[in-house]
Design a protein that fits this description.
single chain, 165 residues, mainly alpha, elongated
Length: 165
C-alpha cells in the first residue's frame, strides 16, 4: 500500500519515478547477481540524454513513411460512410475526424512535411480526443489487413506444429 501511495503522490514527477524504477531494477539485479562486474551502486538516470532519444523515436513514429498510407486508407473510407450516415448521433464527431485525417494527409502530400512533425502530433492528439472512427470503417480496415496482422493463425498444419524448422 505504501508503494502505491508513493506512486500516486509522485505521479507528477516523472524524473523521480524513473529514478525510483531504475533503482528498484538495479536492486533486483543486484539481488539476482546480475550486476556488471565492479558495479555496486545504481546508475543515475540521465534525463537530458533521454530527450534526444525520445524525440528521435517520436519523429519516426510520426513520419510520413509510417502514418501516410494507413491514414490515406482511413480518409478514403470516410466520405462514403459520412454520406450514408448523416443521421448518426456522432456524425459531427466523425466529420471532424475526417477533416483531421485530411489535414494530416495534406501535410504529408506537401513538399514541407519534414518540418511539420509538431503539427502532425497536434492533429493526432485532436483525433485521439474525438475517439475511435466509426466501427464500420474500423472493421473494413481490419478486413483488409493481412491475416498475420489481425492475429489469425498462419497457413499450415493446425495445432502446435511449428512450420519453421
Amino acid at each position: 500500500k505504501q508503494w502505491y501511495q508513493r506512486r500516486v503522490r509522485g505521479a507528477g514527477n516523472m524524473e523521480a519515478n524513473i529514478a525510483e524504477t531504475m533503482e528498484k531494477l538495479f536492486r533486483d539485479a543486484a539481488a539476482a547477481g546480475d550486476l556488471p562486474a565492479g558495479q555496486d551502486t545504481p546508475p543515475q538516470p540521465d534525463m537530458e540524454g533521454m530527450v534526444p532519444v525520445l524525440e528521435n523515436l517520436l519523429s519516426k513514429l510520426l513520419s510520413k513513411e509510417i502514418l501516410h498510407e494507413p491514414l490515406q486508407e482511413l480518409l478514403d473510407l470516410y466520405p462514403e460512410w459520412l454520406e450514408s450516415n448523416k443521421e448518426h448521433p456522432k456524425y459531427s464527431v466523425y466529420e471532424k475526424q475526417c477533416r483531421i485525417v485530411q489535414d494530416i494527409c495534406d501535410i504529408f502530400n506537401g513538399t514541407n512535411y519534414q518540418n511539420e512533425g509538431g503539427r502532425v502530433y497536434t492533429l493526432l492528439n485532436e483525433m485521439q480526443e474525438t475517439g475511435p472512427p466509426p466501427d464500420e470503417i474500423v472493421n473494413k480496415m481490419s478486413q483488409e489487413m493481412p491475416d498475420a496482422m489481425r492475429g489469425a493463425a498462419p497457413p499450415g498444419p493446425p495445432g502446435d506444429q511449428c512450420c519453421i524448422q
